[in-house]
Amino acid sequence: MLKPDYEAPWWLPGPHLQTLWGKLFRRPPIQPTKAERLDTPDGDFLDIHHLEGPPGAPLLVLLHGLEGGLRSHYIQGLLGEARVRGWRGAVIIFRSCGNEMNRARRSYHSGETSDLDFAITHLTRQSPGSPVLLAGASLGGNVLLKYLGEQGKGVPSQIRGAVAISVPFDLARSSRHIGLGFARVYQHHFLRSLRRKARAKAAMYPGMFPVEKLATVRTMYDFDDSFTAPAHGFLDAEDYYRKSSSLGWIGHISINTLLLSAIDDPFLPEQVLDEVRDVAKGNRFLHIEFSRQGGHVGFVTGTNPFRPTYFLEKRAGDFLARQLEPAPASL
Fold first, then answer.
1. Measured between alpha carbons, how far is residue 223 from residues 129, 170, 233 in Å?
2. pTM of the model
């Protein structure tokens, strides 16, 4: 069912302006965080940036999107929402997305959940009395949903709820869709950064993948077939997409999870959201809110273009706050 809560502003029509606004024009206040480095079991490291708060306060764990990080506008917006609500925050930085290249052969991808599991185990041990809330955007949302699906009923008891924003639920169809029309601008932006990192990996680990293929990479599919798949143990891009897409996992989620997406998201064909709706009909823990407009991690609103407001972080905060409320007493 479409939710009437989100309304696109008159001054920001269309999905692309919504998608680009945050990257090009939004300057959210940078929240003060304290960095922590975790050594991983495979000899690598993960960086987590902590927004501090009262001991025992709810902890909001955030996952960024493809080539994002601590300074991503939506991450800072969600951290700001956590601060206003008196929560603490923790931003998990995927391997290779921090200030330095990670040490291991592999980096990160849309279906890599072992680092998230490792980080959540660490964070729950660090704050055993705190309820934990999860939110992920775009690639981070796909990782989050796959993790929750894999955990099923075994999800850590401290985790109370989750929000996944603008998720590319079907990676194969998303990789094709981002190569159509104006969306190729986003594809070009991602590939420029991804190719640079892949060359750095090839210098660290000669022979890990056919680096000469990078010269012919023109699409996300090409990149995933040339680098992501071989670097992370998949047969090819199709094998990677099939095993990593969250669409195949959301039916197993067992905590209340909000799926917040826009039908006009330029990263995903509308038909995929229809399939998500079908899965959600059989899982009472999935709460679907697909607005007609909003772009990709956009959801900008407000009547004054000089004083915009940001629906996604307020909606995420409201949903997660409800998961902290005591369950109604049974009669």
1. 43, 17, 15
2. 0.96
